[in-house]
Design brief:
TTHB210-like domain-containing protein, mainly beta, globular
Length: 244
């Protein structure tokens, strides 16, 4: 009987271990709310979705100062172990940024970084190391249809824009997906979202344009979403991960 009980308990433990789960990281204060990251895992511990939640009030009473206010978010261990992403940096731009007439509206840059935070913060202004910003990865590591913007941003890198984005063709800016590079490497994937668009309480689902090759092995997302939830929070996520 004891042996049977042990086998039963062992089976239960195995079943529990194979269940989908969620890991979360500590929250960071933002506006009148908070932001925290999370990762959803399948029964084998592989990522199915990851992102962050902005609680009710997180979009209220944000700083009006420039330059941008940065909110640094750690990722759960499973996210950093299974995907190339190391942390998230939310940049709040109350006056937007260049180019004028396109992105000069209040918006967020949601950076999913592929390099440690300490290394990100060491990226200097463009004038200090233009070679680092201008050294681009092999074309296969970036999706077709993206072009590098001039110059670069300290503690970020060079930004690459999708030339088919509607805001580049006379439409108001709502959201877009940007890639970043520095010193010959892809360093971040970045949804960029206007505050006015978030205020419409959107349900956005879209595929992420993919490169032909991936520099670092791991699970990469193929889908991006924004979900305004009934409790007043917003969920920003990368999902449909594929092992590369």
């Amino acid at each position: 009987m004891c042996a049977s009980l042990a086998l039963l308990l062992g089976a239960c433990a195995k079943d529990d271990a194979s269940q989908p789960s969620t890991q979360t990281a500590p929250a960071v204060a933002m506006g009148n709310g908070k932001a925290n990251t999370w990762v959803n895992l399948d029964g084998q511990g592989n990522p199915t979705a990851m992102g962050f939640t902005l609680s009710k009030g997180a979009l209220d009473q944000l700083p009006a100062t420039v330059p941008a206010t940065e909110y640094m978010l750690a990722l759960p261990d499973a996210a950093t172990q299974k995907t190339p992403f190391q942390h998230v940096m939310i940049d709040w731009n109350p006056l937007g940024h260049e180019p004028a007439g396109i992105y000069d509206v209040p918006h967020f840059d949601f950076h999913f970084y592929m390099m440690p935070m300490a290394e990100v913060m060491q990226i200097p202004p463009y004038a200090v190391n233009p070679a680092g910003f201008d050294k681009v990865p092999a074309a296969a590591y970036l999706p077709t249809g993206y072009v590098k913007n001039p110059g670069g941003v300290p503690a970020m890198g060079a930004h690459w824009t999708d030339v088919s984005s509607p805001e580049l063709h006379g439409q108001p800016f709502t959201e877009t997906f940007v890639f970043g590079t520095y010193n010959g490497h892809v360093t971040f994937w970045e949804p960029m979202v206007a505050l006015s668009y978030l205020r419409t309480n959107p349900t956005l689902e879209q595929d992420i344009k993919q490169p032909a090759q991936y520099e670092t092995p791991g699970y990469y997302p193929t889908h991006f979403s924004i979900l305004a939830k009934p409790d007043g929070s917003y969920e920003v996520s990368l999902s449909n991960f594929v092992k590369r």
